[in-house]
Amino acid sequence: MISKNLPATWRCGRFLFDFAKIGRPLVMGILNVTPDSFSDGGKLKSLSDVMQHAELMIQNGVDIIDIGGESTRPGAVPVLLQEELDRVLPVIEALKDCGVALSIDTYKAETMREALLAGVDCVNDIWALRQDGALEAVLDHVTAIAGNECGIILMHMQRDPLTMQFNPEYSDVVAEVGLFLQERAALLRENGVAQDRVALDPGFGFGKSLEHNLQMLANLKEFTELGYPVLAGISRKSMLGKITGRDSHERLAASLAAVVMAADRQAAIMRVHDVPETMDALLLWKAVQES
What range(s) does the Pterin-binding domain occupy (predicted)? Predict the structure, then answer.
């Protein structure tokens, strides 16, 4: 069941998601146009490949497509702005009228601006709008395009992608991550952003040990107490590999188990690689909830 603490809806650009009406967590399909993402980097070598993969997700009922042009895996080296733009803007242009919401996975302010102008509905930022100009990019878009206010996903990350997995430490990972997300969401509220446009991502695998990740999954419901939809991004993550001993492309079963556990703990958005299988798992979950 969807948490009573959440807003009834989530505004995501052209789309207004009604959680009660949908009756299951939203499915956000990952569309990486990168050569080095941890699980699927380099697989989509042309725009035609990208469109075929996106069409498969759309056919299987995906709610949001999250487009990323820079890998944020542990140890990833940043890419230049123009290179990121060259990767993502043609994809946005090709998909902007596909009938599902589009999200841009970026922390660069200029990429946010260009992607929003090109037609994306959501900004998904691993830095929670802490990079120079990022907050202003989102706020300026709201001012310029009234009535088409983008969704905003704020993620927690300890340090940065190059160093985040070097001995991450917390006194209480759930409390500390929750406080960070609460503070970042409050900053948006102070700048006039409506609560129903914001979602929170505790950042599985971003500066957390296996034990930290397991504690967050076990206590995921606590993040929903903050009053915002919670995104769970666990698909194919190394935490699953450490438990199962399987490589990233062999983690489907563990990913689906994590999705169901996150749904039981009231996650509202699932960011995943395997859309058809995830949708099947959540439809079964929904049927059981409704029974």
Answer: 25-283
Query: Which superfamily does CATH assign the domain made up of 9-290 to?
Result: Dihydropteroate synthase-like (3.20.20.20)
For the chain, give the number of residues.
Answer: 291
Query: Catalytic site residues?
Result: 237, 271
Helix, strand, or coil here: 29?
Answer: strand
Q: Supply the DSSP symbol for 11.
A: E
Are 120 and 150 a contacting pair, CB within 8 Å? Answer: yes
∠ CA 37-43-45, nearest 5°, is 110
In whole angstroms, give the CA distance from residue 192 to residue 180. Answer: 19
Residue 269: pLDDT over 80: yes
Cα dihedral: 283, 287, 290, 291 (round 10): -170
What tens digit of pLDDT does each residue of 205-228 get? 999 999 999 999 999 999 999 999
Q: Look at 176 and 146; give whichever has higher pLDDT.
A: 176
Q: Which of 254, 206, 173 is nearest to 74 (CA)?
A: 206
Give the predicted TM-score (pTM) of the model: 0.92
pLDDT tens by residue, 270-289: 999 999 999 999 999 999 99
Phi/psi at 39 (5° precision): -110, -40
